[in-house]
């Protein structure tokens, strides 16, 4: 098994080297289901976001038959909301069926939207936002809902409810691995390394973890790379917009940016901040899933031209997961 992963990493390193020679703008965001259908169907040109098809579906509801509804089903399936029937026929048609209505309603509940099952303007706007590629729901388990009832915190003057969540079965690093090493794969832009290193230090300052970089081909707990489209981990990137990065739950340690995205150091219009994206993905590497708290670094969506730091919800999540 170890040899297999070594070969996969070698292939990824070689691919990264090739990608580095190709024209690129820069790179970004998450758990990894099969590549979504809209990647294959061409929702990935440089003028149209992979999620752009959602715009003309605004107002759709159960009983409608509209061209493009099957792409909505694939979108929701990719992020864990829509479960196909055994023969997959419902996913291939454009019928806004009861299964799709239920999936839309669950999405709305996760993101504190009006849970009608109708694809209203607010829902479409949220779905079209660039986001982390990690699915919200795994094998029917919805961490964004199942964990909510448990995280209550009382203070002298106020009462708060946290909305952090964990991956299925709450995987985490063993106590022997609270110091983690990381390595940049070949092809990582030079300007990305310092912001990513700063993101690790921010997590170290707020948790019991420490981090250090190793160089060359030294073995590392975490590997960071930039890739385009299919890159060997089972979760293809989709071109500019759409999903911007992804990382795996402990103790896998892989973190990939989408090299087709525009990235920047700091808040620059039309670009994603390297450090903000890294803070989110490192949260996944440590065991946090998505949060429904607006402003939390573990919120699944991200906008261009902004920077974010750790939120109290993110820090509370790590402390709860590791019981520290």
Automatic annotation (TrEMBL):
Obligatory cofactor(s): Zn(2+)
InterPro entries according to UniProt: M10A_MMP, Pept_M10_metallopeptidase, Peptidase_Metallo, Peptidoglycan-bd-like
Organism domain of life: Eukaryota
The Peptidase metallopeptidase domain, residue ranges: 169-324
A GO BP annotation: proteolysis
Signal sequence, renumbered to the chain: 1-17
GO cellular component, one term: extracellular matrix
Molecular function terms from GO: metalloendopeptidase activity; zinc ion binding
Keywords: Glycoprotein, Hydrolase, Metal-binding, Metalloprotease, Protease, Signal, Zinc, Zymogen
Family: Belongs to the peptidase M10A family. Matrix metalloproteinases (MMPs) subfamily.
PANTHER family in alphabetical order: MATRIX METALLOPROTEINASE, METALLOENDOPROTEINASE 2-MMP-LIKE
Name of the protein in question: Peptidase metallopeptidase domain-containing protein
Species for this entry: Carya illinoinensis (Pecan)
């Amino acid at each position: 098994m170890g040899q297999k992963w070594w070969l996969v990493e070698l292939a990824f390193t070689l691919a990264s080297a090739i990608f580095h020679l190709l024209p690129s703008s820069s790179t970004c965001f998450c758990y990894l289901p099969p590549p979504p259908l809209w990647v294959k169907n061409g929702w990935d040109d440089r003028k149209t976001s992979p999620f752009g098809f959602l715009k003309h579906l605004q107002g759709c509801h159960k009983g409608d038959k509209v061209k493009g509804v099957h792409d909505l089903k694939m979108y929701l399936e990719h992020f864990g909301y829509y479960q196909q029937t055994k023969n997959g026929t419902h996913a291939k048609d454009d019928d806004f069926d009861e299964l799709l209505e239920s999936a839309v309603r669950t999405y709305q509940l996760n993101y504190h939207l009006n849970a009608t099952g109708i694809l209203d303007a607010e829902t479409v706007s949220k779905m079209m936002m660039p986001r982390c590629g990690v699915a919200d729901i795994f094998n029917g388990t919805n961490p964004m809902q199942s964990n909510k009832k448990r995280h209550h915190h009382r203070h002298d003057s106020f009462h708060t409810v946290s909305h952090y969540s964990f991956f299925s079965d709450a995987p985490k690093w063993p106590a022997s691995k609270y110091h983690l090493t990381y390595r940049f794969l070949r092809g990582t832009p030079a300007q990305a390394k310092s912001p990513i290193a700063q993101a690790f230090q921010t997590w170290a300052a707020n948790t019991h973890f420490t981090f250090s970089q190793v160089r060359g081909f030294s073995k590392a707990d975490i590997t960071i790379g930039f890739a385009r489209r299919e890159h060997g981990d089972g979760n293809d990137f989709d071109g500019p917009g759409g999903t911007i990065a992804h990382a795996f739950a402990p103790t896998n340690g892989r973190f990939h940016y989408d090299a087709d995205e525009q990235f920047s150091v700091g808040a620059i219009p039309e670009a994603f901040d390297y450090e903000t994206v890294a803070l989110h993905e490192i949260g996944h590497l440590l065991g946090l899933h998505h949060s429904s708290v607006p402003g939390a670094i573990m919120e699944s969506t991200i906008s261009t031209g902004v920077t974010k730091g750790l939120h109290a919800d993110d820090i509370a999540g790590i402390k709860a997961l590791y019981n520290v």
